[in-house]
Design a protein that fits this description.
Layout (H helix, E strand, L loop, with lengths): L2 H16 L4 H24 L1 H9 L10 H19 L5 H20 L17 H20 L2 H4 L13 H16 L7 H16 L1
Helix pairs in contact: 2-4, 2-8, 3-4, 4-5, 5-8
Length: about 210
């Protein structure tokens, strides 16, 4: 057997073995997304009045119609949908409203700020907004050094400025779209076992 044939057989063996783990990536995506979505939904409910005002105000907010309804739909989708992602129940159905929520966030909140979530002037994705934040960041550091214990204040991380770009929302969108396409995952979700039970029941009845 040639080296190429041996390598090909080894590759096929590894890929065949990985098929049994095909549900693990979906599980990992679900478990990463669930707390993020649930926290976002809970925050909206906790700050209901302020969130409604932000959704509805066209001057300093999003200027969306029917803000109470929009907040209820967004928060409900995130809170309930995030909870359902944990066991992998109705994963594809849950992914749809969450994807819509991410798209609304991307285009109505984050888009004008560019890609970066945090201002990083060293990034090749830094825009004028990020570069302009450099001066502000240095001024913040100067004030902290002069009027505070700078080493203590920065003991858990350096000072930075939030840019609020689409970075995180875009990644969540991609992760949710992946779940929409693949479902909850083989062996790792309730969806899989419900589907398995339904197929067995249909086979018995037919």
């Amino acid at each position: 057997m040639s080296a190429i044939a041996a390598a090909t057989n080894l590759y096929r063996t590894i890929v065949s073995s990985l098929e049994h783990l095909s549900g693990v990536p979906a599980l990992m995506l679900r478990l990463i997304l669930a707390p993020v979505m649930m926290q976002a939904g809970w925050n909206k409910f906790q700050g209901w009045e302020n969130t409604v005002a932000w959704f509805g105000n066209s001057e300093w907010g999003l200027g969306l119609p029917f803000p109470e309804l929009m907040v209820a739909l967004a928060a409900g989708s995130e809170l309930v949908g995030g909870a359902l992602l944990i066991p992998g129940l109705a994963t594809r159905f849950v992914a749809i409203p969450l994807i819509v929520t991410m798209l609304v966030a991307i285009f109505s909140v984050h888009w004008e700020n560019g890609w970066l979530a945090v201002s990083d002037a060293s990034s090749w994705l830094a825009n004028e907004r990020v570069m302009e934040a450099v001066e502000r960041k240095e001024k913040v550091k100067e004030i902290l050094r002069e009027h505070g214990n700078y080493s203590w204040l920065t003991g858990r991380g350096g000072v930075t400025i939030l840019n609020n770009g689409i970075e995180f929302a875009a990644m969540y969108f991609v992760m949710l779209f992946s779940l929409l396409c693949t479902g909850g995952g083989r062996y790792t979700s309730l969806d899989y076992y419900i589907s398995l039970w339904a197929r067995k029941k249909q086979a018995v009845e037919s």
